[in-house]
Amino acid sequence: MTIAVLFITLFGCMLIGMPIAVALGLSSVTTILLFSNDSLASIALKLFEATSEHYTLLAIPFFILSSAFLSTGGVAKRLINFAVDSVGHIRGGLAMASVMACMLFAAVSGSSPATVAAIGTICIAGMVRSGYPQSFAAGVIANAGTLGILIPPSIVMLVYAAATEVSASRMFMAGFIPGLMMGFILMIAIYIVARIKGLPSQPFPGFKALAKSGVIALGGLMLIIIVLGSIYGGVASPTEAAAVAAVYGYFIAVMGYRDIGPMKGMPWKHEGEGVAAASVRNLFQMLVALPKSVFDPEVRKVILDASKVSMMLLFIIANAMLFAHVLTTERIPHTIASAIMEWGLPAWGFLIVMNILLLIAGNFMEPSAILLIMAPILFPIAMQLGIDPIHLGIIMVVNMEIGMLTPPVGLNLFVTAGITGQNMIWVIKACLPWLCLLLGFLMLITYVPQISLFLPEYIDQLKGY
Amino acid sequence: AVAAPVEIKFSHVVAENTPKGQMAIKFKELVDERLAGKVEVSVFPNSQLFGDNKVLEAMLLGDVQMAAPSLSKFQKYTKSLQIFDLPFLFKDMEAVEKFQQGPDGQKLLSSLKKKGLIGLGYLHNGMKQMSASNPLKVPSDASGKKFRIMTSDVLQAQFEAVDAVPLKKPFSEVFTLLQTQAIDGQENTWSNIYSKKFFEVQPYITETNHGVLDYLVVTSTEFWMSLDDDLRTEIQKALNDAIVYGNGIAAQKGDSDKQLIIDSKRSEVLTLTAEERQQWVEAMKPVWKKFEDEIGADLIKAAEAANN
Amino acid sequence: MIKRVVSQFEEGFLSLLLVSMTLLVFAEVIARFGFNAGIHWAQEVTLLLAAWFVLFGASYGVKVGAHIGVDVFVKMMPPGTHRFFTLVAIALCLVYCGLFLYGSWIYLSKMKMIGIELEDLPVPKWIPMSILVIGFVLLIFRFLQLGWKVVKGEADGFHFADEAEESMELAKELQETALGDEPSINKNTKEGK
Ligand code: NA
Ligand code: NA
């Protein structure tokens, strides 16, 4: 009965278009009022606790802020240049380079649709011009874009870590190999198609040009080194590393690349200017730019955008914690878990059921919301079946990637339709063959836990734990 | 009609297999056995209901009836309970027990009354040890090192007294910070060092026994006074029995966890000579003076007397 | 005019909260790693800033449509039905706010009565906690405003933020600048159509 009221109110509220956060909160409060004698005051206390006692959650706004600075257009272009210079000369190279650019961008950004938009805008048009079919180009990018949440840093992983209390830095490490693997699987598939269809390649620009574009792209790519480096180098905890990443994001975008903000268009070195003179001038200009940033409309817009997204996510999370609180006090996961355990499903059977559930949810909802609702229910069952929490997290993330590509709610589909100017049906068809690849990859990730667990366990071993 | 049973929600933040978790379960069993139909206890472990920071507020709102936060959590409710954080005040758990059960210790239980809470009894975890990434033998070994502490003014002063840097960090971040040596050390009981796996990331543990980590079982005055006298006495009795049981487990677990840590060989356990220990005592003793006004000089004397 | 001042204040304050949180945690790292020191009040203040950020921001989120929701189903309905459901949804949002406002008020009064201070700062605890009440009052105001717009026919739904739509902004920006400095692949961006 309690279960029914809780879920019917939740889904009812969501169907009529209420904000997910409010739907979660209202269904929780209703259930508490009807079935328990907790006071409204203690529910308010619980909500305040959810917003003010979870230090690790702060990694979410920090990473979003850092992504916001690094997702400005210039970073994407530099990454694409580097990717084209590295693999453009192989047959089907431009498509492979697009995948690689998506992977690189994923290492900077925690969001999938942003990856598609940033890389797709330039790469799809570029591929078409070089003689690729447009649907091929669109399909490749929409799929490769999903890597945004698998390759660290990833907002979705942080949300999973928050919902289940597993270590965020271990989740990040765990996403690394699957992310690279998925990228390479896509590239191999592209190579095979390119061979069959005789798709073109670009001339190799030479190692010097490659090195140069690599160095230019490094400013963005340093982010992942800074994040993982400061965690493993003993400088910061994962939450603190996220704050460091945000500060770095500001410096690299405003003072390094100068695509936005008060230093926009200022060259590092004028023609004919000496190195010493340029250094002094740059240093001085940077010191001036620091206070100027406070009033700079572009910088302010980046921060405001990040604020909006972070606040929205944290408000959902706070309400989802209330929801999870109701779930546990009413022993609902326990009830569902014992029901599922009664079916006598083995671990592999449970994983199939879970994948199907998540794929269905992925049709209608966005990843963070799905994880926050499903993780507290599925997690305890998985633990009883002896599934590793990190492995479970990666399976969920890959499911969320697929959800980005399935109608009617698929963020990557929307973005791809937007940048190609095609309709949704066309985009769905273009993505379909690649989506099958992703489904195969999901099976692989589900039943070969070592792919996800190898790196975090190896690092533990290195450190002798 | 029969009146509905009194409901007691007991909320704590640790697992069921810890001494505190076991004590709570024992309490429930005893109440079920002795007060069937009159009182019903439900235990919520693992911060399922509330974390330690919010549980006292929830208690004041009447949504939790019992909890057992560590004594350091009460510093904003009463200054006198800070006495348990003072370094090198008690020489061992026997002295702690003697003081707690004595007249002064019992009087402290009602020191929270003004804020609407009543202490029902002390529950042991054990004596605290120091762990670090370098061997700590004399106070100067700790100088300049970063130690994680619980939020407590006394503990902050304690580490500042040996020129160490006390840092407040949420428990959730401590393991990683110790692992990567972003923080050098921490202080805790044997059972916490074992259960939180700190011994896996801290190469040296010094058996300092420099302080005590105990819990206070509390309830709200409003709830406690609403009970009939007989019922209150019975509940208190059941709780006292459960506490004795829990303290037994705590003592046993302290010893066995210490042995498990030594056997793991991941961490070297150092002991102090009488001389070295004296250096620590002298370095940290000024902390007593600093908090004498807040805690009360007589109370500190009474606690010291428990050592004899 | 007033509208613009209010907007600017809301935006500025929200950004300020996020930036202070970030810088405070960053400062802690610098203090610890660079100067071997701690900032003993940083943790508590950071967390309170987070509470303010979320509870203050929620109402701003309603105003600018930053919250997310599932609107595929209501959007498939005829406009009249869509508006009807939106009004029901807004009414339920108000119920939510009302319940929380009531609970928050009792909680806050109790905290004020007991009168304890923050752990690390000599400030009564109820003062930073007052954002609970402030936040829900603002939220009620924004939902009423939205409801009025729907009644007048100026809006039909919550106008959920669309990550997809926002990403498109990035795409637009890239398309605008792509022609200049990208000789290898982007000369004919428009050919894709
Ligand atoms: Na990413
Ligand atoms: Na979908």
UniProtKB/TrEMBL annotation, chain A:
GO terms for cellular component: plasma membrane. Its main location: membrane. GO terms for molecular function: transmembrane transporter activity. The keyword Transport applies. It comes from the Bacteria. It is a multi-pass membrane protein. Keywords: Cell inner membrane, Cell membrane, Membrane, Transmembrane, Transmembrane helix, Transport. Residues 7-451 form the TRAP C4-dicarboxylate transport system permease DctM subunit domain. Part of the tripartite ATP-independent periplasmic (TRAP) transport system. PANTHER family: C4-DICARBOXYLATE TRAP TRANSPORTER LARGE PERMEASE PROTEIN DCTM, SIALIC ACID TRAP TRANSPORTER PERMEASE PROTEIN SIAT-RELATED. This is TRAP transporter large permease. The lineage of its organism: Bacteria, Pseudomonadati, Pseudomonadota, Gammaproteobacteria, Oceanospirillales.
Automatic annotation (TrEMBL), chain C:
GO terms for cellular component: plasma membrane. It is found in: Cell inner membrane. Keywords: Cell inner membrane, Cell membrane, Membrane, Transmembrane, Transmembrane helix, Transport. GO terms for biological process: C4-dicarboxylate transport. The chain crosses the membrane at residues 12-35, 41-62, 83-106, 126-144. It is a multi-pass membrane protein. InterPro entries: DctQ, TRAP_DctQ. Residues 21-149 form the Tripartite ATP-independent periplasmic transporters DctQ component domain. Its main location: membrane. Belongs to the TRAP transporter small permease family. The complex comprises the extracytoplasmic solute receptor protein and the two transmembrane proteins. Part of the tripartite ATP-independent periplasmic (TRAP) transport system. This is TRAP transporter small permease protein. It comes from Neptunomonas concharum.
